[in-house]
Design a protein that fits this description.
The chain is an alpha/beta fold and 569 residues long. The chain is built from 19 helices and 16 strands. It has three domains: 275 residues, P-loop containing nucleotide triphosphate hydrolases (Rossmann fold, 3-Layer(aba) Sandwich); 98 residues, no CATH class; 51 residues, no CATH class. β1 and β2 form a beta hairpin. The chain is globular. The N and C termini lie far apart (80 Å). It binds adenosine-5'-triphosphate and magnesium ion. The site of adenosine-5'-triphosphate (ATP) has 16 residues, from α2.
Length: 569
């Protein structure tokens, strides 16, 4: 049985013990991973239930105990389990968090099931030489917080500043600046449902031109400013074409309106509240304590996830470039399911900053850890410099073949030999929580079983559970409509922009949404699909999908507005 003295050493991560995959049993000894090796990044692949999240959470726990902060991108909702740490390991600690459906399935009362889970965790940890004192150490070592962009359940993250000029380290690097502009434009257009080709799409070219002009001058830009500039761009020509020939003003107006509708949509306000999206603040508390920042995106739709993840990755690149060089591990970025964000052929806006991180983060001590259950969906060329591969049980021969291709590429980049047949045999014999670790900093691959995690793995947390956890942190039971106080310096949500009358024949004019109370429901003629926040038809209804034609009469030309008296009678 290992003891704390064997594994509690600064700079080494206790990941598990060696495992004999032929005899199918654990062996004596410890798998201690040198934290410095993680600056060349890691990828963790395995079928569902193979234990990837368990292994990666063990790694994050080890990093936290060593004072290394981390940003965790959580598309599934189970990384918040890191906040379920109970040094007393008592059943009443587990009771509020156990999955009641699991209790029912086992024909146990919730109390009995909680008792069983507490015992399971106590025994599980003890068999790996861990105990409540280590859990306390983990809790004391770092701050654990759940961020929920676009929602108030956890700590909301404001994207207001995400269109501000990047730091000089990015602006002065032509390639990085171009990447940042391109991915910002693509992710923003993605949010509007426009799948824009950076070369062919005029929307993409226009937004990129606006960002480029503003950022080169170090100018602040927010969504409201962007909407205004789409209508009156800072340039008169695009390429050799006159601006109006390239993108007529009435079409620019339509684009501005879609963005404006997005901004005005009920629910979008949550994207503008809370702490600014600032990587330095995510990684450390104001007092300088390392933080494990769990950024939950499980509640977002696909376009919102891509938008947010791209913004966050861009911010990480920007922050990283302002750091001094180092050879030790300074921070971790972990993404629990990379499916769709780093595909082999397509080029979504998340891929470019991820590639940049994989190429450059090493020099700044930032380790990237990526996990997936879809090995076929990975860009292996982009992963060829990844130093550590954790490969768990795989489902199909095709999955095995793809992972072996990836490993072969990584071995080639590191100038190492590669025993494909031998590794293939091992991969076929892996069971749950057993991984083949190929670390280019070590002489040969090892098979190991992951250690028991200290956090209670209850599975994905609900919105209400996230709220309970974060309310406890916020210090007071927040009312249902509670909003996190904006951080100092964070601006309030901008008002949707009023569009000036566009030039051009046939263009529809728009008027600002008045701040006054809306008219009576029968007093206007907008369509049922109108989703203007001041539209009385929308009152009490869930937000509907945007319609390009349905508009509240408040959006009609000012001359068409009813008189106030008429509207309110
Ligand atoms: N290190 C661990 N300590 C304790 N229990 C573990 C550990 N790893 C896995 N488990 C158990 O196995 C279950 C499945 O593991 P895990 O969630 O890590 O799989 P996964 O590979 O991430 O699956 P998916 O791809 O579906 O997310 C967990 O819910 C937990 O009960
Ligand atoms: Mg998982």
């Amino acid at each position: 049985m290992p003891s704390a003295a064997d594994f509690e050493k600064l700079g080494v991560f206790y990941l598990g013990r060696p495992y004999d995959w032929q005899q199918k049993k654990g062996q004596d000894g410890l798998i201690l991973y040198d934290s410095k090796d993680l600056v060349t990044h890691a990828v963790c692949v395995g079928m569902t239930g193979s234990g990837k999240t368990g292994l990666c959470l063990a790694l994050i726990e080890e990093a936290a105990i060593d004072g290394i902060p981390a940003i965790l991108i959580d598309p599934k909702g189970d990384l918040a389990n890191l906040l379920l740490t109970f040094p007393g390991l008592k059943s009443e600690d587990f009771r509020p968090w156990v999955n009641e459906d699991d209790a029912r399935r086992k024909n146990l009362s919730v109390d009995d099931y909680a008792r069983q889970q507490a015992e399971l965790w106590q025994k599980g940890l003890a068999s790996w030489g861990e105990d409540g004192a280590r859990i306390q150490r983990l809790r004391d070592a770092a701050d654990f917080a759940i961020y929920t962009p676009g929602s108030n359940a956890g700590i909301p993250l404001s994207i207001l500043k995400s269109f501000a000029a990047p730091p000089p380290a990015i602006r002065e690097d032509e390639e990085l600046l171009r990447e940042r502009i391109g991915t910002t434009a693509t992710s923003l257009l993605g949010l509007l449902g426009i799948d824009a080709d950076p070369i062919k799409s005029r929307e993409h070219i226009l937004i990129s031109t606006i960002l480029d002009t503003a950022w080169r001058q170090g100018q602040e830009l927010d969504l409201a400013g962007l909407i205004q500039q789409i209508q009156t761009p800072p340039v008169k020509r695009v390429g050799v074409l006159d601006l109006d020939a390239f993108f007529p003003s009435k079409d620019r107006f339509a684009l501005a309106m879609s963005l404006n509708n997005l901004l005005a949509a009920p629910g979008f306000g949550a994207w503008m509240e809370g702490e600014p999206l600032d990587v330095g603040n995510l990684l450390h508390t104001p007092e300088g304590k390392p933080r494990v920042a769990i950024v939950s995106i499980a509640h977002l739709n696909d376009a919102e996830r891509m938008f947010f993840v791209s913004l966050l990755l861009n911010q990480v690149v920007g922050w990283m470039r302002t750091q001094s060089g180092t050879t030790s591990l300074r921070a971790l970025l972990y993404m629990d399911e990379i499916f769709g964000f780093f595909p082999p052929v397509a080029n979504p806006p998340s891929k470019t900053p991820l590639l940049t991180l994989l190429k450059q983060a090493r020099a700044f001590g930032v380790g990237v850890v990526l996990a997936t259950q879809n090995p076929v969906d990975l860009d292996y060329k982009g992963l060829s410099n990844t130093g550590t591969w954790f490969i768990g049980r795989l489902q199909t021969e095709r999955d095995k073949a793809r992972v072996l291709d990836g490993l072969e590429g990584a071995a080639g980049s590191a100038g190492q030999g590669f025993d494909r047949a031998g590794l293939e045999r091992i991969l076929s014999g892996l069971s749950s929580r057993v991984f083949l670790m190929n670390n280019v900093h070590e002489d040969h691959p090892v098979v190991f079983e992951s250690r028991w995690v200290m956090s209670y793995l209850r599975g994905p947390l609900t919105r209400a559970q996230i709220k309970t956890l974060m309310d406890a942190r916020r210090g007071a039971p927040a009312p249902a409509s509670a909003k996190a106080a904006p951080a100092p310096g964070a601006a309030a949500r901008p008002e949707p922009v009023s569009a000036p009358k566009p030039a051009g024949k046939g263009a529809r004019a728009a008027a600002p949404e008045p701040a006054a109370a809306p008219p009576a429901a029968g007093a206007h003629s907008c369509r049922p699909t109108c989703r203007s926040t001041s539209c009385p038809r929308a009152a009490g209804r869930p937000p509907e999908r945007a319609s390009s034609t349905g508009r509240c009469w408040w959006a009609r030309p000012r001359s068409a507005w009813p008189t106030r008296a008429a509207a309110w009678t």
